[in-house]
Design brief:
This protein has about 750 residues and is an alpha/beta fold. The protein is built from 24 helices and 17 strands. About 40% of the residues lie in helices and about 10% in strands.
């Protein structure tokens, strides 16, 4: 996954460099100009921007068609993978280490410090989520949060006084100015990202299509809704100025607002304060076009003002009601659910009139500039016959609320339980991810049903946090196996010291002298032979040394390995790790393979996965990990053999570059695995495992496999198939004998190519 993200990062950087070189050719900036081409709707709700680089290791079928097999709770491994990818995006764009995290029940967080993403996240929602995370990360990088906190003190008093005479309270002023600032600030930071990282535009378009635009907004802009000169009307029209359906003739002063915003020169806004000053200028235009309120004096001589449209007075804060002057009354409507909202949008889309919108003067959003015919503002507004139904008006109110929440950073994000969030944190630290395996099984399958590839869980780092999270079946805090395993590890460390001395011969050099050569140093003993015509009187000394070596030990951790098999295997593996720790120039990785049930009620559930756990890596881990964490490992599940080898193949080969490489397997039987994707038994499994072992050898890796059995019967019954998979180097071994292990490994280590 990291390699894929790094490649994508290189792509983005190069893309960005090329596009910045051509920035002088860009006449205008239009943050929404590509909406039609790159809208979520036009992509049939698929990720157009990430799909080209996500690859097959991402689970693109996270939406379960079979409700009976739908797992309980979220896919934590997939969520962790998404979070890592999104964090990578944010860090690239911001050039800062901005934390990206899920919101957990009961959590509180400070704006300006980290990006919080929703747990409702799958492949279909990935692009819009990336866009939102980038947007929030850009605010962290570019917005002045201290300035925003002191907004009230930064607003000149004259605006409060003038607004009061219009019928708007101090709270109203604060709310409207804040919304205007949010709108202008969004345009400023969007421009920064669009000009400095143009490869990310698509994600922003997905975000705006999901969280800001809607069919009912598009439709309402061409009607007479929100055309009275009041604050709600101006706010609705202004925050949708970049919509293709914007009509600057719908309200007096909108063209002046457009000129003040001057979005084609938005780069002039260098900071939050300059965006605030532009927002104030826009607010001033609004005040110039809203009629004064109706003055009232109470019995005590106090003066107040009712708004001309009768929607409220200066002593009340009515911002947020969402009521349109044309919608009939000031009744506060409830906010409909997302399901209701989507349903209404669909009905609007299906019943949308094909008639042209009459009398409008829409903004030319393709160039974000106005044609000459539209530069003269008319004092009278045209009349439109296009109206909204009552249901559409309610939908519009809720759409506007969603827009304001978006600008205010108040987007509802599904929360995780604290337990799940801690689990994801541990998954993240472990580098856990999915790897697609079994891609070639279809043509080799001996079963009738269709065979698909499946996902193998690859865990790259074994941590105490992973133990505590209780997310992996082969990792348990139960004392059932732990005491016996602890004793085996302790004994293994003692025996490993002995084994290390036996293997240390690899580090010794051997000097071999060859005489009677025609070149080299003169052998004094042969000088007398020169008079007899013999010129081969030289000697040469050759020094035999061994290159650096790499050993990968893979252990079958299926349920059948329980009991004495497990404790004896753990003793031998620990002894080998200790021994290699004593040898200079040799590194060792230890992995355990089994299966993981991620949820569901049967073993055929689609969440039943092979799992490969890299438990120890001498290049980065100390023996302390073996002493403290190996005791929590226990056998469980079935035997996915070749599927796990396939998952770890690239990582294994990467560590073996320019070294003599060895793969050592401990196993007690035949491969066996089954889930909704495939049947991995008998010939299908043995042939696939044989293929993976052959691939290891083709990459220059020497393979040795130990068959672990309790009896001669086990050996006789399984050795034939065992040798078929692992070749002539596979052998039955007395796992209780460290001497036997040392003898075979010493032989391998001392082989010369």
């Amino acid at each position: 996954m990291k390699k894929r993200l790094d490649l994508y990062r290189l792509f983005v950087v190069r893309s960005g460099m090329n596009e910045r070189e051509n920035m002088n050719k860009i006449k205008h900036f239009n943050p929404m100009a590509l909406r039609e081409k790159y809208s979520v709707g036009s992509l049939n709700k698929k990720n157009n921007y990430s799909s080209f680089w996500l690859g097959n290791d991402w689970d693109t079928t996270s939406a379960f068609d079979d409700e009976d097999n739908k797992p309980k709770g979220p896919d934590l491994i997939q969520l962790a993978s998404y979070r890592r990818a999104i964090a990578n995006f944010v860090n690239i764009v911001t050039s800062q280490d901005v934390p990206v995290t899920f919101n957990a029940t009961g959590d509180s967080y400070t704006d300006g410090n980290k990006v919080v993403i929703s747990s409702k996240l799958d492949d279909k929602l990935f692009d819009s989520t990336v866009g939102l995370a980038l947007h929030e990360g850009s605010h962290i990088k570019l917005s002045d949060f201290d300035f925003l906190k002191n907004l009230e003190n930064n607003i000149p008093q004259e605006y409060f006084i003038r607004s009061k005479k219009k019928g708007y309270s101090k709270n109203d002023v604060m709310s409207y100015v804040k919304n205007l600032l949010n709108y202008v600030e969004d345009r400023r930071i969007d421009y920064h990202i669009f000009s400095n990282a143009p490869g990310y535009k698509g994600y922003y378009h997905s975000m705006y299509d999901k969280y800001f635009y809607s069919k009912v907004i598009d439709k309402a802009l061409g009607t007479d809704e929100y055309t009275e000169e009041n604050m709600d009307s101006y706010m609705f029209r202004i925050i949708n100025l970049t919509n293709k359906n914007t009509d600057l003739s719908k309200l007096n002063g909108l063209r002046d607002v457009w000129k003040v915003l001057d979005i084609k020169n938005v780069s002039r806004l260098e900071n939050t304060e300059s965006a605030f000053n532009t927002a104030l200028d826009i607010y001033n235009v609004i005040l110039n076009n809203i009629p004064d309120g109706i003055e009232k004096t109470d019995d005590n001589g106090n003066t107040s003002y009712d708004r001309q449209d009768g929607s409220g007075n200066s002593e009340e804060s009515t911002e947020g009601s969402g009521s349109s002057p044309k919608s009939g009354g000031q009744e506060e409507s409830r906010e409909i659910t997302d399901t209701e909202f989507e349903s209404l949008l669909e009905s609007i889309e299906k019943g949308e009139s094909e008639e042209s919108q009459s009398g409008g003067s829409a903004v030319d959003t393709s160039g974000m500039d106005l044609p000459e015919s539209k530069k003269k503002e008319s004092n009278s507004k045209p009349t439109s016959l296009n109206t909204l139904s009552d249901a559409q008006k309610k939908t519009l109110e809720n759409a506007i609320k969603k827009q304001k929440k978006f600008m205010d950073g108040d987007i509802q994000k599904n929360k995780l339980s604290k337990k799940d969030k801690l689990a994801i944190d541990s998954i993240d630290q472990s580098g856990m991810s999915y790897k697609e395996v079994g891609k070639d099984l279809k043509k080799d399958s001996e079963y009738g049903r269709d065979v698909k590839s499946t996902k193998c869980i690859l865990v790259k780092n074994f941590t105490k946090e992973l133990v505590d999270s209780d997310t992996i079946g082969m990792i348990s805090t139960s004392r059932w196996y732990r005491e016996d395993t602890e004793e085996a590890i302790k004994e293994g460390l003692r025996l490993g010291t002995i084994l290390g001395r036996k293997l240390s011969v690899r580090t010794e050099s051997r000097d071999t002298k060859y005489t009677r050569k025609n070149t080299g140093r003169i052998d004094k003993r042969l000088i007398s032979e020169l008079g007899f015509g013999n010129t081969d009187v030289f000697q040469q000394t050759f020094v035999d040394t061994f290159p650096d070596a790499f050993l990968h030990i893979s252990v079958d951790a299926s349920g059948s390995m329980g009991g004495s098999k497990w404790t004896n295997t753990m003793k031998s593996v620990t002894a080998m790790v200790k021994a290699i720790d004593m040898i200079e120039g040799v590194d060792v990785v230890v992995s355990f393979r089994s299966t993981q049930n991620g949820g569901g009620h049967t073993r055929r559930t689609s969440t039943y996965r092979p799992i490969m756990l890299i438990a120890y890596d001498s290049r980065k881990d100390s023996l302390v990990k073996v002493k403290t964490l190996f005791k929590y490992l226990q056998p469980s599940g079935t035997t996915p053999e070749g599927l796990c080898y396939e998952a770890v193949m690239d990582e294994m080969v990467e560590g073996m570059k320019d070294r003599e490489s060895y793969f050592l397997n401990f196993s007690d039987g035949m491969p066996m695995f089954q889930n909704d994707d495939l049947d991995y038994y008998h010939g299908t499994a043995t042939n696939h495992t044989k293929k993976m072992v052959k691939e290891l050898r083709n990459r220059g890796i020497k393979v040795l496999s130990y068959f672990v059995g309790d009896s001669d019967y086990d050996r006789d019954r399984s050795m034939s198939d065992f040798k078929k998979m692992y070749g002539k180097d596979s052998q039955y071994i007395d796992i209780t004998s460290v001497t036997a292990v040392s003898r075979t490994m010493n032989k391998k280590f001392l082989e010369k190519n």
